[in-house]
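Task 17 of the worksheet. Students: predict the tertiary structure of the chain below and write it out as structure tokens. Keep your answer in the requested format; marks are given for formatting as well as content.
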Amino acid sequence: MDDRYFSPDPAQRTIAADLYNRVKNLPLICPHGHVDPRLFAQADYRFGTPVDLLIIPDHYIFRMLYSQGITLESLGIPTKNAVPVEADHRKIWQIVCDHWYLFRGTPTGMWLRDELQGVFGIGQKINSANAQTIYDAIAEKLATPEFSPRQMFERFNIEVLATTDAATDTLQYHEAIRQSGWAGRVIPTFRPDAVVNLDTENWRTNIDQLSAVSGIDIAGYSSYIAALEQRRAHFKTNGTTATDHAAFSAYTGSLSDQEAHTIFGRALKGEISADDARRFTGHMLIQMARMSADDGLVMQLHIGSFRNHNPRLFKQFGRDMGADIPVTAEFTRSLKPLLDEWGNQSDLTIILFNLDETTYSRELAPLAGHYPALKLGPPWWFFDSLNGMRRYFDAVMETAGLYNTAGFNDDTRAYASIPARHDLWRRASADWLAGLVVRGIIDEEDAEAMAADMAYHLAKQAYRLGT
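Model answer:
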């Protein structure tokens, strides 16, 4: 249905369809996501089975199934301790399709339906009876050259795709992409959480890796800062335009040089407290803003997730297993130390993401509507949905204005879902703008410009992807 997700009001639906048709074929700007760069490092890479592509990488799918008592082992999710998991991918696919009713009305259900239709040309509804037929249809296409990651990249009309890469990453796959001569633009994003958040598991090992890849012996805080700056410079030579930082809260606060040296020294000895970790992360966020002011990298800050809430899953499967839960957040006081130092820099861009919707209109929109350095990222994670987008538009646009937001990013590791996610955003944006038109808030000329900005220009400008 071409007018899916649009208002039932005939006047709004007509305008929404016109706006959408004007932007639906614009190139995709993918400035933040978690697609593995090794997919593009060789021309003949293959995804494997439909389960390898659509189920195992997608925590949106397996977290819902887990909530209904279906084990991750039965879905083929690899374990940390080599415990055997289901290896029959047809059986896994059948389990997923037997329970597909769980996804009725959810963003995942909408994405996969649109993905099967748009990417694979499959119009059948997923159910138990046709599970193997759909599996065969997908598997047949994945075996062809047209469904290699590079060819899909071109068919999806992706202009640029940013991956997310640890500060200790050698970027070997990005270098291989560049050296291959392929024209697709895949760039890294600098993510230093594993060496910044002192309470990260294996933090000390990560510091040793940072020493090795930077060529700087990290003996204390000063050499640690030098190593981070070296890695940022290396990332920039590989095309990086942004950094990414995740923290439990938005707390920031500067430490004195002596305090930073002392806490870092305790961390090297494995003697930190929870307060040490909190204060050091808050200090390093300010340091990362300083570095971004120096080197021009856009700074992304993702706040408000209680990560690895389920210790059993974390122990057996590790991170990103669907057990991260939103928490309340506070920004006005917490970000003030950072903003006091860097918020008025018009040549610095800090993009805020949050999982507490109550802060949208109360804090985030007023902050972004004032400080030159701040922009708001799109609704994230649990709110990257049709209704989440609508709530976001209504909550932030009046105060922040459209041009203090950063457009859309798909933020996914589920590669084949990227076009469906962008299409949903473009439809939601067109429908919201059409509502403003029918109420006389904006005219159609402004709506057309805003639709193009929301679909394409805002993200490209916010992430400095013009070249």
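Marker's comment: Residues 274-295 form the longest helix (22 residues). The radius of gyration is 22 Å.
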